[in-house]
Each structure stands twice: as C-alpha cells, then as structure tokens.
Amino acid sequence: MGHETGAIRKAKASLIFSMLVFGTIGIFVRYIPLPSSVIALTRGVIGTVFLIVVTLKRGPGISWKAIRRNLLNLCLSGAFIGINWILLFESYHFTTVATATLCYYMAPVFVTISAPFLFKERLTKKKMLCIAGALVGMIFVSGIWNTGISGTGELRGVLYGIGAAVFYASVILLNKKIRDISAYDKTMMQLAAASIVLLPYTVLTEKVSVLSLTPVAVILLAVVGILHTGISYTLYFGSMKELEAQTIAIFSYIDPIVAILLSALFLKEPLGIGGIAGAIMVLGAALISELPDKLQDTGGKEE
User: Fold this and answer.
1) How far from each other are the two terminal CA atoms of the chain, in whole angstroms?
2) What's the CA gap between 216 and 39, in Å, rounded?
3) What does the radius of gyration of the chain's CA atoms come to, in whole angstroms?
4) Tens of pLDDT along 143-200?
C-alpha cells in the first residue's frame, strides 16, 4: 500500500470531517418547521450562493473554462444529487427511517463493486470483507432485524431507498471523472444543478403556505445551508480526486452512524445493544480498510 502522501492524508481528513458534519444534519433539520423537500431546496440555494461569494472573494474567481470543460459531468452529478434527495424523501414517506437509511447506504456497496470496472481499482479481499462488515453493521444499527418489511407500501419505500442509493453511488463515481477544477467551482455548479432539479419537485409536491419561522429556525436553516451544504460538500467533493472510490465508499458509513448515535443521545431515539454493536462494526470496518498492509503478497517482508 505504501506511505500516504500529505495530499491523501488531507483528503481523508476532509472526507471524515464532511461525513461527521453530514451525520449531524438530522438534529438541525428536526427543529426547522419546513417540509424536507423545501429544506433541501433551500440548502441547495444557500449553499450555491455561499460558494459563489466565497469563490469571488478568494481571488481568481470562478473558472468558467474549467466549468465548461467538465460541464456535462457537473450537470449530471448535480442533477443526480437532487434526484437522490427526492428519492430519499419519498422513501421516508413509505417506510421507517431505519429501513430507508439501510437501503440508502447500499450506495457504498455499489461503488465498491463498480470501481474495479470503471477505474481499474484493485478490489482486495480486505476491502471486500470491510464493506461486508460495514453493511452487516448497518443492518444491526437500522433495527430491521426486529421490524422487517411488510406490505406494498413498505416495499415501495425500500425501492425508493435503493433508487436513492443508485444515484448517490453515481454521484461518487461521476466525481472521479471531474478533473482540473477547484472544489469550490465544482460544488457550486453541482448544488446549483441539484437546486434546479429540486425546484419543480418542491413546487408540485408542497402546498405554498405562509410559514412562521422563528429566529432560531432561520439560524438553523443558515447553518444547514452554509456548513452542512456549502462547506461540507466542498470538502467532500474536493477529497474525491485524491482517494480511491472504495475508500470514499467505506468512509461514507460514518455519516449514518453519527446520525443514529446523535439521535439516540439528543432525541432519545432507542439504539440498543445491537445498534451499538453495529456502530462499532461499521467504524471498525472503515478503520481496518485504511490500515496499511504490513506484508507484501510475495516475500512476506514489510513495505
């Protein structure tokens, strides 16, 4: 595996930080009195505006040349983010959050399976075992052992969740093809595309009404738009060019684990012994997957 460069270490730190922040979004959203699709659209718009301001303040400004060079993949991945959010919200309507989360986080499995074919990444036995361990851990955390799946409505929710996972995986894979563009420009375009996709969905599915937002709710919405979207997506997408798709996939499991642990801690949602064991399995799989291999395949000597 060799020694990691500074760029790879920085990319991993950015990825882990973004996953930790993503995992806290549920706590913030819980106290914002808006429909989930409206929150998603608002976070996309706030995140886009925030990144435009940051990019213009940073000096060289927006590189339209780099954007034009990657325009197709930027628009596609951004649209996929919007569709991914829509399918996930629909999944929540038909099944439990636990089941929807489990289906949604099939995405890292899809990425890990696709990476050897798309990017010629070597799928080692250790990576396969770690992704399997993370998936089993998520099953324990979700509590689906106890609830199971019942009825056509539940099945519909599962299918929406898996659909969201497919688009989430597609976003990760497409981002590996976007090159020679700053993380700010890339994320700005992707969030803008996601907002454009979310706009008609939100208009068609949500009744327009006057909603009284408290100052606290406005602050929370700003935090979700700036920290959870603008900053965190910049770090998330910025880390992808330095890391293998399989690494990104496994570390993605940090997000739901943090979300479930925080919901148990702050929202008093039950976790149980199985949930704790599952969380340990997921985080352990992420850690083990990135530990350097001590022995070469031949000769048995340390690298």
Assistant:
1) 8
2) 15
3) 19
4) 666 655 556 667 788 788 889 989 999 998 998 889 889 888 999 999 999 999 999 9
